[in-house]
Amino acid sequence: MKRLLQNGLVLNLSPPSVAVADISIADGTIEAVGPDLDADGCDEITDLAGKWVMPGLCCAHTHLYSALACGMPGPTAPVSSFANMLEQVWWRLDKALDDQGVEASALVGGVAALRAGVTTLVDHHASPNAIAGSLERIDGALDVVGLRRILCYEVSDRDGPERALAGVDAHRALLERGATQSTAVMVGAHANFTLSDETLRACARLATDTGVGLHIHVAEARDDREAVGESLIARMARLGALRPGSLLAHCVHLDDDEIARIADAGAWVSHQPRSNMNNAVGYAPVASFGERTMLGTDGIGADMFAELQTAWFKAQEQGVPWSPDRWLASLTSSYEFCGQQLGVKIGRIEAGAKADLIVLAPCPGPPLRAENLAAAMIFRLGAGQVRHAMVDGEWRLWAGDPLGIDTIELDRTAQAAAEGLWSRM
Ligand SMILES: [Zn+2]
């Protein structure tokens, strides 16, 4: 299949560039970008004059399992700490998930991500009463939506040793299959404070044996370190869990030495400012975070424009000296991370890269230029402008609607799944 997109304003984010150009695409890969490309032999020609085209976005840390959470029963008593909030809210939700709930959550969350211009998701999944086959179920749902995905199951001892072991085992079939260009698997672990030495070591061993990284929450709240009683990073290193290519979500309560150690290990950090504010866990020491820093939503939808904007405002309030360019780099660094996991080149509209791109309705205003694109991403652009999305050279969203998915039927299924979920909670 050969496609030609004509006359769009191409916005590359990393490094920033702005130019009207045609884009030719064959078999999922961008063949050429430039003016007046030859339309001969193209199966489909799309005129994007006046539209803006940019690489599809990545969300570096999310929880699709929470996609049916809005409207669920709240805490039954005043929340006394972050750990208590997990017990009263989130662990009640994940325990109530059954196979249908897992699948419906992934479909609903996947469609929301696509509509927000996200074409690659890094998911961290938990469903302690529906563990076996859960990653395959999410993989299948995201295949229907058409997103690239990096999956894991969040192993934890919080529901006993059997479920911890089942969580480790949940990764095996997909790890044996190996990464495809659509799906990669990391080894998931919840957080140090719900993992015994033995269980965290088992996660690290599986990751080492299969050559993948760990995906784990680290120091999201003070409870994590306080419950463990030693430096979380020292502990992870001691247990073989501080591996290159690993993803440490949050890192709110770490000191500079610990953050340096993460960088030295070749691991990545994801920052989720909206979630951190929502949970009142404190502000991450982002000024100390290195180049391998990414942005995620932590399950608060998948709107990366909103996440970037909040990251900026919160940092301004806190006096963090990061420029708009530095913040844009934290959004686009996930192209390198996700590309490495999946074995594909994504995040650039240029010859040789995968055709993962989004088309936005223009936002009339001052000239858009390479030198003001970072500021525009924070102050001007938004998910509401996303009209079309293409993944691997195939249109997956057109005029705001996901292709191949009956959203009315999905809404019916999701409502029924949510009612069941909430009643079990
Ligand atoms: Zn999380």
Question: Explain this structure to me?
Answer:
With 425 residues, the chain is an alpha/beta fold. The chain folds into two domains: 110 residues, Urease, subunit C, domain 1; 286 residues, Alpha-Beta Barrel (TIM Barrel), CATH 3.20.20.140. Helices cover 38% and strands 22% of the residues. The chain is built from 14 helices and 18 strands. Strands 1, 2, 3, 4, 5, 15, 16, 17 and 18 form a nine-stranded mixed β-sheet that branches. A five-stranded parallel β-sheet has the order 10-11-12-13-14. The radius of gyration is 21 Å and the shape is globular. The model has no long low-confidence stretch (mean pLDDT 97). The site of zinc ion has 6 residues, from loops.
Features:
14 helices; nine-stranded mixed beta sheet; binds zinc ion; alpha/beta; 425 residues; globular; 2 domains; TIM Barrel; Urease, subunit C, domain 1; 18 strands
